[in-house]
Amino acid sequence: MVTILPVIPSPVTGDAVCCAPLVKEPIGQAEAERLAARMKALADPARLRLLSIVASSADQEACVCDLIEPVGLSQPTVSHHLKVLTEAGFLSRSKRGTWAYYRLQPGALTGVADFLAV
């Protein structure tokens, strides 16, 4: 069964958009490389699930200790995926005692979504 999700307009307008939509004008080499690196970070099912869990958590923040069981991966593997998402700019990391907490970066997904918007 295929679920069709509604298209929600982006709240970001004007200068806040990272790049022109794909079908409006060609992008330069540097922008293509930057965007491809960000999209590559999203191109993994475990990373998409982790990002979704963090985004849907209270205050869009979650402890790594709460992310291990839902994705069924070891703590080092989950930490690796979270590091990739952090380096791509989707999450930020803060340390509290022995645990790391990850927070969704405001507007992090908007640039990718706006680029793919038709």
Describe the protein.
The chain has about 120 residues and is of the alpha+beta class. It has a single domain, classed as Arc Repressor Mutant, subunit A (Orthogonal Bundle). It is about 40% helix and about 15% strand. It is built from five helices and three strands; from the N terminus they run ααβααββα. The protein has helices at about 30-40, 45-55, 70, 75-85, 110-115, and strands at about 60-65, 90-95, 100-105. A three-stranded antiparallel β-sheet has the order 1-3-2, with helices on one face. The radius of gyration is 16 Å and the shape is elongated. The protein starts with about 30 loop residues before the first helix and ends with a helix. The model is unreliable at about 1-15 (pLDDT under 50).
Topology:
Elements: H1 29-42, H2 45-56, E1 61-63, H3 68-71, H4 75-87, E2 91-96, E3 99-104, H5 110-116
Antiparallel strand pairs: 1-3, 2-3
Helix pairs in contact: 2-4
Output the CATH class name.
Mainly Alpha
What is the mean pLDDT?
83
Return the domain count.
1
Which residue ranges are poorly predicted, with pLDDT under 50 across at least 5 consecutive positions? 1-17
CATH fold annotation: Arc Repressor Mutant, subunit A
Number of strands: 3
Q: Major sheet, described briefly? A: 3 strands, antiparallel
User: Which outline best applies?
Assistant: elongated
End-to-end C-alpha gap:
25 Å
Oligomer: single chain
- What Rg, in angstroms, do the CA atoms define? 16 Å
Assign a percent range to the helix content: 40-55%
Query: What is the second-level CATH architecture?
Result: Orthogonal Bundle
What is the beta-strand fraction? 5-15%
